[in-house]
Amino acid sequence: MRIKKDMKLADVIQLNYMLIPVIHRFGINLGFGDKTVSNVCQENEVDLNFFLQLVNAYHDKDYFPKEELQTIPVKNIVNYLQMTHASYLNEKLSEIEQKIISLQSEDTEDQKYILLIRNFFEGYKSELTEHIMYEENVVFPYVLTVEEIIKTQSFSERNREIFDAFSIEKYEEGHDDVEEKLMDLKTIMIKYLTPPANSTLYHTIIQDLFKLEEDLNYHSRIEDKVLTPKVILMEKSIKNLL
């Protein structure tokens, strides 16, 4: 079932509660009563078309309107990706880390295995954080600059400096797969470690890792299938100006 602009947003969440964090990343908080998707987007100054395309892409894994999403301004795409980054750094990673620490603090004879899980997760957290900060500090400022050059059809001294120092095509070639280590951690916990006494908490951590991986996959699709090819085309257009 496709989510449409005249549906009540509360009904959208009843349909798929996993959309709550996605909607929150648009700056929309719960408590919208019987307002429709269109009403809520208008009140929160959210691009309705972008909202609909994105929540439908999250709602249905087989639906990915690549061409429609590529019509969205770069600034809107980057805003959404930055909100997603913030949720990873400020919420999801910390929540999983705290659960692992809680597991470690329990009186159990499986401490060495739990320490292994914690060390592995800390390594993953560090790798993902470094990846995110590079995008925040280098990639996003660059793509916003590209959009500004296209919009003004001219270079400022600063824009020219940023444009000459980076290339989205080269970035794409070296774009790391940050989900690989996460998959390794899940495999270790599922296949090779015996759950500790608090198996409920152990299982909750595994479920959280699955949810994080799924969210990262959606995030990567936006970066790799929408933002990157869109900026590559913009780069080519700019080079024709030179």
TrEMBL record:
InterPro entries attached to this UniProt entry: Hemerythrin-like (IPR012312), RIC_family (IPR019903)
Places the protein is found = Cytoplasm
Q: Which GO terms describe its molecular function?
A: metal ion binding
Instruction: State the UniProt keywords alphabetically.
Output: Cytoplasm, Iron, Metal-binding
Is Chloroplast found in the keyword set? no
Q: Which domain of life is it from?
A: Bacteria
Q: Where is the Hemerythrin-like domain?
A: 105-230
The entry's cellular-component GO terms read:
cytoplasm
Q: Gene3D superfamilies given for it?
A: nmb1532 protein domain like
Is Protein biosynthesis found in the keyword set?
A: no
Coiled coil, from the record:
none
Q: May I ask which residue range the UniProt record assigns to the signal sequence?
A: none
Which PANTHER family does this one have?
IRON-SULFUR CLUSTER REPAIR PROTEIN YTFE
Q: What is this protein called?
A: Hemerythrin-like domain-containing protein
Tell me what organism the protein belongs to: Labilibaculum antarcticum
